[in-house]
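Figure 2 data, in text form.
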Amino acid sequence: MENILKQILEGQKQLFNEVKSIRNEMATKEELNEVKLSIVSMETTMADKFGGLFDAREVQKDVNERILASLERIEAKTENHDIKIAVLDRRKRIMAK
């Protein structure tokens, strides 16, 4: 009987030590709150940065559209000049005959 009690007592000591070890490894409420605050701070920062990136993308999109519009105008002018040059070349050839 005494042997059984010793085994039970030893088992309880082992359980106590395991529970104590687990408690030491667990995060406290304060540590969890710090982690939560850190996460909220990171989310806020990331939201601001993503907003900035989106705004920059919109600005770049507008710039690209203006450049494309300018390029279209330049192409139209070039075509017009090509036509005028062709007409002038034809006149020059006719006058040279």
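Caption note: The CA atoms of residues 30 and 62 lie 48 Å apart.
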